[in-house]
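Researcher: Let's do a round of design. I'm pasting the structure tokens now; please hold your answer until I've finished.
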């Protein structure tokens, strides 16, 4: 029997990248997965990937920054799967947003007000909305787990992507507050802070060039760039009973990168 047998896990932004890797890993451990992303094509492809591997998955297209979409996605979890045990708020925009959405990652002096609001709406607004409407569903089933994705940017300063950094810091702080408030009701909440991970979000902008990729690997104590599967393994620990006495914490998954001075 898998570690998540009988659990229902909703993972936002799971049409690709870290979210999809987690969905595959959780499904392999027996969870029923609700795949959420902003476009139908990636959702359908992810659902088929899970099912082809023998897992259970249902798709729910929706924009995490829109309350009506969030409520509809959660309704799918309720109607198709009977409720919710794991809420993994993974969706967010980073460096790939310039190409996909026309949103630039820049320092505070060069960030437009429009970009600032859009990044906040998705990266922290989405966590707010899914927690606001999703935590009651966890409580209905006697408790559950909230797992939020932040970044090592929340733990260290950077020279650009200031709106992104602000949202990730907010995710860490909000997660702590959720852990304290809803722990007595059986809800645990933790944050994963990925480092340099080889996914679409940064591939074309940060690590496509061999020299930059090599430099980042060499700066990392473990001497390589992370993978989506690296994040999925830590996510599995944090949503499973193996971490049953862990809440309100942030976990850097970065090969030791932020320990460099």
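Researcher: That's everything. Go ahead.
Model: Designed sequence:
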């Amino acid at each position: 029997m898998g570690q998540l047998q009988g659990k229902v896990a909703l993972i936002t932004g799971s049409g690709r990248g870290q979210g999809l890797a987690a969905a595959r890993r959780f499904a392999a451990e027996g969870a029923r997965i609700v795949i959420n992303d902003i476009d139908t094509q990636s959702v359908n492809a992810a659902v088929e990937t899970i099912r082809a591997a023998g897992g259970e998955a249902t798709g729910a297209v929706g924009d995490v920054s829109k309350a009506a979409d969030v409520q509809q996605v959660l309704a799918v979890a309720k109607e198709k799967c009977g409720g919710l045990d794991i809420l993994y708020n993974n969706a967010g925009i980073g460096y790939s947003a310039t190409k996909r959405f026309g949103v630039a990652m820049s320092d505070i002096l060069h960030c437009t007000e429009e970009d600032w609001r859009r990044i906040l709406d998705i990266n922290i607004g989405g966590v707010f909305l899914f927690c606001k409407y999703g935590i009651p569903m966890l409580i209905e089933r006697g408790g559950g787990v909230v797992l939020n994705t932040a970044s090592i940017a929340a733990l260290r300063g950077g020279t650009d992507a200031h709106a992104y950094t602000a949202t990730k810091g907010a995710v860490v702080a909000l997660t702590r507050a959720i852990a304290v408030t809803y722990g007595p009701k059986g809800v645990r909440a933790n944050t994963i802070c990925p480092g340099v991970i080889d996914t679409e979000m940064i591939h074309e902008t940060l690590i496509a060039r061999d020299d930059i990729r090599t430099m980042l690997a060499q700066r990392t104590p473990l001497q390589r760039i992370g993978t989506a599967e690296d994040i999925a393994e830590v996510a599995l620990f944090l949503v499973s009973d193996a971490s049953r006495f862990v809440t309100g914490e942030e976990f850097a998954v970065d090969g030791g990168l932020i320990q460099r001075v």
